[in-house]
Amino acid sequence: MKKIDRTLSVIILIAYAVLWVISWIMAYVNVPADVISAMNWTRLVVLVLMYLVVLYNAVGWTDNLILRIVFVGLAAFLIASAIAVRIPSVYNEIFGKYGIPLMV
Q1: Per-residue pLDDT reduced to its tens digit, 1-50
Q2: 3-state secondary structure string, 51-91?
Q3: Phi-psi region of 99 (alpha: psi -120 to 50; beta: other; left: phi over 0)
Q4: Band of residue 104 on the pLDDT scale cut at 50, 70, 90
């Protein structure tokens, strides 16, 4: 099982890095706004997958129920923060009401 964990981590880390490099290249090339938007959404999906893999590994690290709950809460906050950047209604309902800054 450790081999699968490590492989997933490597794949997602490389995918996220490649998407950032492509985004940097796109910043210097004239591309349509739709392509930039699609790239931003793709990076968001990969970021959420990265958080889920890290959560999976963190929960598997301990048998302590309290620590597992803390890890799930932290991951939920990070995922909600990442999503709130793209979806204003999520920002308004979760972060805006309470003045919580986004993790951007």
Answers
A1: 577 777 888 888 898 899 889 988 888 888 898 988 898 899 899 989 98
A2: HHHHHHHHHHHCCCHHHHHHHHHHHHHHHHHHHHHHCHHHH
A3: left
A4: low
Of 71, 23, 75, 72, whose CA–CA distance to 48 is shortest? 75
- Determine the Cα–Cα distance for residues 35 and 40; give it in Å rounded to an integer: 9
Residue 71 burial (CB < 10 Å; 0-12/13-18/19+)? buried
Question: What distance separates the 2 farthest-apart alpha carbons in the chain?
Answer: 51
Alpha-carbon span 24 to 26, nearest angstrom = 5
pLDDT computed for residue 16 by the predictor = 86
Encoded tokens for 83 = 């999503």
Q: What residue type is 74 in one-letter code?
A: L
What is the identity of the amino acid at 73? G
Residue type present at position 52: L
